[in-house]
Amino acid sequence: MRHITVGRPEDQRRDLVIVAVLLIASWTLASLDSSQTLGLTRAMRDTVLRPFLAADAVYERTAGLAARAASLELERDSLYRELQLTADLQRENRELRTLLDIPERVPGDYSVVELVPGRPTVGDVHAFLVRGSVLASLETPTAVSVPAGLVGVLRSAAGSTGLGEFWTHPEFRVSVRSIAGDATGIIRAIEVDGRTTLMLVEGVPYEASVPAGTILETTGLGGVFPPGIRVGTVIEEAEARSGWSHGYLVRPAVRPGGVRAVTVWRRATGPFGGQESGSALDTAEAMGGGGGRR
User: Fold this and answer.
1) Of 24, 117, 264, 276, most Cβ neighbours within 10 A?
2) Distance between CA 287 and CA 101 in Å, rounded?
């Protein structure tokens, strides 16, 4: 029986040489220690694999930019709808103030800055750093917020940087009220089961009933936080009561972990624009939200 040889003899020799080289290379690589393997890996990344790694990085950046663009489009559409609703409310507010002969309220202005969590002390989850040119002329302490609600307080600012604390800080306090205005109190952060950080509103008058689902917002007392910023939503009544007042567990409106762009409040001057005074609420806010640590 006749055997048919596939391929030319020189091709067979070349294949044998390639197999031998691969076997020798695999044996050599298997005999290398960890430091030699790491060095060889670095050399491969800096030479042969460098174009492929660069292409992969460009692809990841492009994909990230595309996702960010889609997210910005959704935010733009949401902001457009909010602006339409706000314009109607502002018009109705002006008409009512004119009918009741009430002067225009000057709530101040907001400026957008970048927030960097965990600075300046690495690992301090309660602290943050903000960056923006508007900080040079900003009066502190002042509120830091996003459209969804309160983020924390800006403690100090110098040049284009500022230092602040999230609402999760143990010393943070802010006076709040229900949307209907029938319940007020002082809110702070607490840990539940040592894992979840929630809020606790205390000092609510004993006769006031705050059902679950009630939205709490800042009162504006103390001059550190403007009125009307959403703080959280009532979950249930807390077990501990103090004298003729009681407290409620509150789900925060904003979780600090995912916040990157925030607004800082720039106080207004003139009627209704400065610090409002009146009760122990503004004292507590000035101590916890505005004063506290320096």
Assistant:
1) 264
2) 35
